[in-house]
Amino acid sequence: TGKYDFVFVEMQMIHWPDNMLTYCPQLKTVFSNDAFGQHIVNFNLTDEGLDKAYCLKQAKEYFANIVLPYTTPVQAKLNLILGMNLDIEYIMPAHGIIWKDYIADIIETYKGIAAQKVENKAVIVYESVWKHTQQIAESLAEGFSDAGMDVKVYKLSDTKSSIVMREIMDAKVVCIGSGTYNNVMAPSVAAFLEHIRPCKFKNKKGLAFAAYGWFNQVAKEIDTRMQQSGIESCHDVINQCYTPSDDQLEDYFNVAKEIAKNCQE
Ligand SMILES: Cc1cc2nc3c(=O)[nH]c(=O)nc-3n(C[C@H](O)[C@H](O)[C@H](O)COP(=O)(O)O)c2cc1C
Q1: Better-scored residue on pLDDT, 181 or 200
Q2: What domains appear along the chain, each with residue ranges and CATH number?
Q3: 31 lines ligand 1 (CB under 6 A)
Q4: What is the mean pLDDT of residues 47-57?
């Protein structure tokens, strides 16, 4: 433009068709559009003085809820941009604070997300009216924890889906369960499965579970829909008729331990 040069990198579908990254060498600034965004609002325009873990967590939450279905193009573009060896002092995304102090950290975080790197972590999500499904969820959680895994348990009607999406992103194991109501799963579980369907996860193992009274097809249906989102089943579904007995809860504890063990191998 005279004073400034601009380098453009097209970034279609991260996460809109017309997105583009712009780099200005004189300002050592990347205008990254949706990439590296978060929903942090601060008087300081940059990340200076903010807690690093907080900033990265917010960026992960943004990615999980906005960009996750486009992880494959993110990986390709990230490699391309890193290969350009740009001298960067500021990353200015379209949303949230400007990255200044934590540039290396946010890039490292994006590398992990783009590679769909998973942690030794199980996320269990469920819906339950009379607590039978909840009891299964809790026994599974105890089993994963006993096997040394980090575990998060979320009842969908009590939790913002943005938090579940953030936590699921780096989980190695995902368990989804529901009670059976009028022969279908709870609407919150159906909505959640629809939410993750475009994500096309990699590196995730799954287990579906359900409590029922007289129609035992809901766990199978959850399992089918989990697979559509890329979560690979790693165990037969759990079908619990009404209240689980102590022995059945112990079985579920052991199922989780077995899954945890198989995932280490
Ligand atoms: C409103 C309502 C509707 C139900 N409808 C069915 C049904 O259509 N088919 C079935 O197998 N069980 C049905 N049940 C039984 C529940 O699936 C069963 O009690 C299950 O253990 C509930 O799980 P929860 O305790 O996690 O809510 C229904 C229960 C409720 C409360």
Answers
A1: 181
A2: 7-114 (3.60.15.10), 119-264 (3.40.50.360)
A3: no
A4: 97
